[in-house]
């Protein structure tokens, strides 16, 4: 039976900015065995393309912007949904000028910021630096807002996430990704993105394997029984998965050993 591995990127495939050779070898074995491989991420297309082109990954679909933008194996747009413009502008206005806070707009293909911290360059992320006026013009095309809270604790970021979900419960859902907050249209998640690709993947729900390292992966863990995270992940997160492993290749080994 054909199986599908849906993998997060940052902190899962990419560890300290690199994909290990052992992980790449395992992905190659997965594909040679006839199984599917998709990437599920909060990233936009440009920053995801960097990864699969650099490492020559053969992919069968992309769930981008935490499920708000989905591309098929030919990189054609398969699904997209924008955050309501008035909500995007209100969130931007509320946090953009607060000390220690930075805002990013993601339209699916690119990421835009009117100011950003130095570590963005260190992460080798492709970000379009634009004016505040251009950010305002972009507000009607946004699939994900990333709220960066420098220096904040996990508990502080969790509190902000909960406040956003309470205030805009009819329009968005916010996920904590370490000390970032990813905000997407209501109804969008990595799990919903996988479900939309299910027919193209030719895999039934019980043959979907998912792996991630943070809370924006929770929807995958809750929706698919073959769920994996890492032994070093947050303890609370580990309670939502069936398996904990040391690496992506351990997950792939488990998938390949199934009859």
Quick recap:
This protein is α/β, with parallel strands linked by helices and 259 residues long. Helix content is 35%, strand content 24%.
Structure write-up:
The chain is of the alpha/beta class. The chain has two domains: 4-80 and 188-257, Rossmann fold; 85-185, Hypothetical Protein, Haloacid Dehalogenase-like Hydrolase, Chain: A, domain 2 (2-Layer Sandwich). 35% of the residues lie in helices and 24% in strands. The protein contains ten helices and 14 strands. The protein has helices spanning 21-32, 45-54, 85-95, 119-122, 132-138, 154-167, 190-201, 218-223, 235-238, 248-257; strands spanning 4-7, 36-40, 61-64, 69-72, 77-80, 101-106, 111-113, 128-129, 144-149, 172-177, 180-185, 208-211, 226-230, 243-245. It has an eight-stranded mixed beta sheet with strand order 5-4-3-2-1-12-13-14, sandwiched between helices. Strands 8-7-6-9-11-10 form a six-stranded mixed beta sheet, covered by helices on one side. Helix 1 packs parallel to helix 10. It starts with a strand and ends with a helix. The model has no long low-confidence stretch (mean pLDDT 93). This is HAD family hydrolase. InterPro entries: Cof, HAD-like_sf, HAD-SF_hydro_IIB, HAD_sf. Pfam families: Hydrolase_3 (PF08282).
């Amino acid at each position: 039976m054909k199986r599908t591995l849906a993998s997060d990127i940052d902190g899962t495939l990419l560890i300290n900015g690199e994909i290990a050779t052992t992980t790449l070898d395992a992905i190659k074995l997965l594909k040679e065995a006839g199984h599917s491989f998709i990437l599920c991420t909060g990233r936009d297309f440009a920053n995801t393309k960097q990864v699969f082109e650099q490492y020559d990954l053969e992919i069968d679909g992309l769930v981008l912007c935490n499920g708000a933008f989905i591309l098929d194996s030919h990189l054609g747009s398969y699904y997209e949904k924008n955050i309501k413009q008035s909500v995007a502008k209100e969130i931007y206005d509320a946090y953009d000028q607060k000390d220690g806070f930075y805002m990013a707009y993601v339209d699916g293909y690119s990421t835009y910021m009117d100011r950003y911290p130095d570590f963005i360059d260190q992460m080798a992320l492709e970000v379009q630096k634009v004016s505040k006026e251009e950010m305002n013009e972009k507000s009607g095309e946004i699939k994900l807002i990333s709220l960066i809270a420098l220096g904040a604790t996990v508990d502080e970021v969790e509190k902000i996430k909960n406040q956003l979900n309470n205030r805009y419960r009819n329009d968005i859902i916010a996920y904590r990704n370490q000390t970032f907050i990813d905000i997407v249209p209501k109804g969008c998640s990595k799990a919903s993105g996988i479900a939309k690709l299910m027919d193209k993947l030719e895999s039934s729900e019980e043959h979907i394997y998912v792996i991630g390292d943070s809370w924006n992966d929770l929807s995958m863990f809750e929706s698919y029984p073959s769920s994996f995270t890492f032994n070093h992940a947050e303890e609370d997160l580990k309670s939502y998965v069936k398996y904990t492993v040391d690496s992506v290749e351990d997950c792939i080994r488990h998938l390949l050993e199934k009859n």
